[in-house]
Amino acid sequence: MDPQHAPTATNTDPSPEDVEHAAASRKAAWRLLPILCLVYFMAFVDRTNVGLAKTSLEADVGISAAAFGAGAGIFFLSYAFLEVPSNLIMHRVGPRRWITRIAVTWGTLCACMMFVQDDITFYIVRFLLGAAEAGLYPALMYVVTVWFAQQQRATIVGIIYFAVCAGLTLGGPMGGALMELDGLAGMYGWQWMFLVEGALTVVVAYFVYRLVPDKPDDAPWLTEREAQLLNERAVVRTAPAHNKLRGNWKIAFARPFIIALSLIYFANQINSVVIQYNFPSIVESVHVEGSFLIGLVSGSVGIGSFIGVLVIPWIQ
């Protein structure tokens, strides 16, 4: 064979450094992704469980359909308004502390939904819940950029999005089962649902604080060499200067690409939110009986999303 056309190791085989980096990335993924997926799973469960309680809230505390729609939507008012400020604070204090803070406050406020007595208290708790949860998704994405190389990120984000699918699919039957506790200890089923799911979120927050280091250098389960490789391939500045933080607003709004992506995501979320919050009552209206069965049928809307999560990240 002509030596000019003979295959070479440099063209076909990964370098020893590539092999080391791949091994370090796998170790990081196995350590980080379960807890990141779990906290995002609970975010979607706690965000959308109010849809299961719609009929009960109307019957037990007199919250009308119009008031329910306003209260469900007001979550996103505070959530959207505080998303960027929350993200900027996260850069200052670190993702571990900030994600923990987010989970503790939103879990506590989710549990506080059990004390809703009328339209006003419903609006207040939903508004505060949105404020508490603001910044979670950017913080999770920041963790991905700190730990993983650019070519790995689409796959890692796709894995995290499994939590969304799981939340949509399993959150319904999970909440429905808890609502079957109606009457236990003199509490309504929807009160049990908010209390238990909020408490579970606070427990998850504890594990975030214990198990998610801010950066590879802080991970006791990595060798110095592994941390170095992850840092080099990620190439992320973990402590931006204050003047760069102040400039992020202008930079973001000056890029048409970012505005276009925001509008696409906005349109997507309108459809998604309407389904998440209203599908349980639609299911109930066609004479499906029992909280658990209503939750189970409602959760079926999340099954199709698994297909997109499986396919799209691996196309990148």
TrEMBL record:
<protein>
    <submittedName>
        <fullName>MFS transporter</fullName>
    </submittedName>
</protein>
<keyword id="KW-0472">Membrane</keyword>
<feature type="transmembrane region" description="Helical">
    <location>
        <begin position="156"/>
        <end position="178"/>
    </location>
</feature>
<keyword id="KW-0813">Transport</keyword>
<keyword id="KW-1133">Transmembrane helix</keyword>
<feature type="transmembrane region" description="Helical">
    <location>
        <begin position="123"/>
        <end position="149"/>
    </location>
</feature>
<feature type="transmembrane region" description="Helical">
    <location>
        <begin position="290"/>
        <end position="315"/>
    </location>
</feature>
<feature type="transmembrane region" description="Helical">
    <location>
        <begin position="252"/>
        <end position="270"/>
    </location>
</feature>
<feature type="transmembrane region" description="Helical">
    <location>
        <begin position="28"/>
        <end position="45"/>
    </location>
</feature>
<feature type="transmembrane region" description="Helical">
    <location>
        <begin position="98"/>
        <end position="117"/>
    </location>
</feature>
<dbReference type="InterPro" id="IPR036259">
    <property type="entry name" value="MFS_trans_sf"/>
</dbReference>
<feature type="region of interest" description="Disordered">
    <location>
        <begin position="1"/>
        <end position="20"/>
    </location>
</feature>
<keyword id="KW-0812">Transmembrane</keyword>
<dbReference type="InterPro" id="IPR020846">
    <property type="entry name" value="MFS_dom"/>
</dbReference>
<feature type="transmembrane region" description="Helical">
    <location>
        <begin position="65"/>
        <end position="86"/>
    </location>
</feature>
<feature type="domain" description="Major facilitator superfamily (MFS) profile">
    <location>
        <begin position="32"/>
        <end position="316"/>
    </location>
</feature>
<dbReference type="GO" id="GO:0005886">
    <property type="term" value="C:plasma membrane"/>
</dbReference>
<dbReference type="InterPro" id="IPR011701">
    <property type="entry name" value="MFS"/>
</dbReference>
<dbReference type="Pfam" id="PF07690">
    <property type="entry name" value="MFS_1"/>
</dbReference>
<feature type="transmembrane region" description="Helical">
    <location>
        <begin position="190"/>
        <end position="209"/>
    </location>
</feature>
